[in-house]
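Give me the 3D structure for non-specific protein-tyrosine kinase.
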Amino acid sequence: MEEQEIDIRGILNLLRRRLSLIVATLVVCLGIAGIAVFALTPIFSASTLVLVDTSRNALIDPEAQVSSASAENARVDSEVEILRSETVLLDVIEREGLLSDEEFGVRLGLRDRVLAFLRLGDADLPQGDAAVQSVLNRVKNAVSVQRRGLTYLISVQARSEDPQKAAQLANALAEAYIQDQMQSKIEGVLAARDVLEARLQLARENIVRSEQQFDSFISENIDQLAADPGSSVADLRTDLQSVTGSREELQALSQTVSAAAASRDWATLVAQLESEALAALETQRQTLATNLSSAAGDSPTAINLRQELAAVETALAERANEELTDLRSQVAELDNEASGLRQQIRSDVLSSDLPVDVLTQLYEFQQSADLARTQYQSLLARSGDLQVQSELQIADSRIVSRALPPSSASFPNTRLILLMAGLAGLGLGVGLAFVYENFVGGFTSESQLTLVTRMPVIGDIPLQRLSQESDSAADTLISAPLSQFSESIRRARAVVDQYLRRGKTMAAPLDQPVGEGQKGVVVMVSSSVPDEGKTTVALSLARAYAQSGKRTLIIDCDLRRPAIHKNLGIESEVGLFEYLAGRTETESLSSIILRDEETGLSVLVGSKRSDIPTDQLITSSAFARLIGAAIKNFDVVVLDTPPVLPVVDGLYLSQYADALLFVVRWSSTAQAEVRSALSRLEQAKNPDAPILGVLNQQVRSQSRYGKSYEHYYDG
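Predicted structure for non-specific protein-tyrosine kinase (715 residues):
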């Protein structure tokens, strides 16, 4: 397949011809874009930067845990997804009160409003979870969270019709995320502490059980232990019982005093503590209470008595707290003394001369108690650490750049939209120009006609401006033989001759007259639709052949609208129609052939319009004999035929043609009509006869020869 060169000049000419279409398309696109830009609601965007610290900050454990790069990247990506989560967004909705916000609040959507307007749905606002979900969807659409490359920075962007609200929403989302992160860390620590608290209770029970087992063993074997010479176990046990008894009495007294102080039972306090100071204060209180009961309620004396009574009761409470603190201190001292006695008893027991099995059991009890105590202390220390850690937690993320209200809207981007609309309009305009030029509109160049129809184009014929309507452009070959029009006709004749020689359709060379046993050629001139100038082209081509010395006959085969006689300015009562219809007395062909005095061209006019179907005349034996006689007596026979699409005659006439000239009017004939007519001709014509295109009535300024060759032409 041959490569086709890009015709830059043809493209530029096409753009110049369709400049108005391109400009109109560009203006329309820019207009639509401009209307859209000014109709759209401006949207402002604000962005907050959050830094994720992957070292897992803890104030009471400052040494960071070392982690791999992949783990840190996964951590940052996880934080991005947490920022996008509905939990954080719902927290923002609650904090900012977005349920009642004008922009994000509960309202009917476009679909619901349309259905309500058409009375196909309810116009009620959503309630409950549906309302929250609608607001959540709007907030989701208004925010975006993304990681900045491979850094630990997360960009939180919010969009709103209000620049202040956009910045506020972005900052609120970042703050809610950090707050949620810190709360999650605190809850995790407290959950661990609660687990340890449960273990602490078990550890306490283990200690008590171990101590009880040891004490029970000693109590059960006290007689055996006391019988050992030099053993002080019995005396120590007696002392321990005495201390334990005193401790229990003081503990009971402490509990009674604490309950009396809480209920302000001053009489019980005085009776239990047996303190002279408390007794004196109680006596004073009772006296003040008695005096107050007999005094008037609002008198100054009553007021003073109330104040004094309140002061005495306060003194009683303070004194009671002092006594209670002293009691608790005594209980603690007795606890320490009892613990010391127990340790001394254990030490004496373990150092005494006891059977091996008894000592082994004692060691087991002691070891169990020590282990329970050690475990308890470890759990208690860890529980304390977790409690402190829960109070000293800090977030792993922090805001490094807070969002500020934007000064300009991020949407719509007027410049970008207009630029894109301009480029789109320009591209669309150029595309429409090519479509119109190559598929819809008329033909404006030989290359375009060749490309679309796939037929050879032998030339273009310029448009001739006529001074009078009665004039014919074919007269230019006589009046202005050196004109551009005349030259284009002669060029068309030369190309037709070349194709005829190449196809070997001629029995005799074109430069020699038809001799004995030789035949002339038939050149058919047609078009797809009327008013394309085919009659002018046919007559001009016939005159060009006649001027070159060829015996030439032109036959006006357009029996529906004969026009050759009008172009030549001749009248005849007898023509082709009368001859074929048998309405003439003579049967001699030569008697009805006229002569063009200017060029010597022989002419067979159509004379009158047919009043019967013309196809039956064209397909008659009389017409076949006419063509046979013509090619015997003339070198060239030119058939001016009717257009192919409206009349069928041309399809029958094409069977006689050695070459077909298909006339297409410049920038006028629709391409679909041309393709349709050519398709019909291809099926009807002689297979060896070429179809040659002619672009007719081309505007001179569009001619491929341009002004640089005008000095070669005359007229």
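The domain at 206-391 is CATH 1.10.287 (Helix Hairpins). Let me know if you want a second pass.
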